[in-house]
Amino acid sequence: MEHAQDTEHEDQDLFTHFPAVVQKAIEEVLPSKDPLDEPDFNSIDYINSLFPTEQSLSNIDEVVLKMENKINAIDNEISSVVRGPN
Q1: Looking at residue 30, what DSSP letter applies?
Q2: For every one of its 86 residues, what pLDDT tens digit does the chain have, with 9 covering 90 and above?
Q3: How far apart are the C-alpha atoms of 66 and 24, rounded to whole Å?
Q4: Which residues contact 18 (CB under 8 A, 6 or more apart)?
Q5: How far apart are alpha carbons 59 and 50 in whole angstroms?
Q6: Could you tell me the residue ranges of all domains in the chain?
Q7: d(Cα 72, Cα 22) in Å, to the nearest integer?
Q8: What are the residues whose beta carbons fall under 8 Å from the beta carbon of 60, sequence distance 6 or more?
Q9: Can you tell me the distance from the alpha carbon of 55 to that of 29, in angstroms, rounded to the nearest whole number?
């Protein structure tokens, strides 16, 4: 039981929690419909939404490919912003 509490405490250290006022300002400046951007994001609920049934796991390769493509697109966007206009 103690190990689970230690792990939970370590996990909380990985996240930055902003005050409600700051979170609201971020949402106004950078609106997002992506569930990954939610301040109360729950990874288990998100995975369950992607794979609501055992049968839906047969599409896992397709879901992973879509996520990899999204990651690559974001990486490219970050690279172009960092490099700036040519």
Answers
A1: S
A2: 555 555 555 555 677 788 889 888 888 888 888 888 887 889 999 999 999 999 999 999 999 999 999 999 999 999 998 987 76
A3: 29
A4: 26, 39
A5: 10
A6: 19-50, 57-86
A7: 29
A8: 51
A9: 39
- The tokens describing 15, both together, are 């996240």
Q: How far, in whole angstroms, is CA 18 from its chain's centroid?
A: 16
Report how far residue 61's alpha carbon sits from residue 65's, in angstroms, rounded to the nearest whole number: 6
pLDDT at site 24:
86
Residue 69, pLDDT score: 97
pLDDT (0 to 100) of residue 32: 82
Residue 50 tokens, joined:
């992607």
Structure tokens at 26: 């971020």
Helix, strand or coil, per DSSP, at residue 21: helix
List the structure tokens of 80.
């172009």
Which residue intervals of 1-86 are DSSP H helices?
A: 2-13, 20-29, 43-50, 60-83
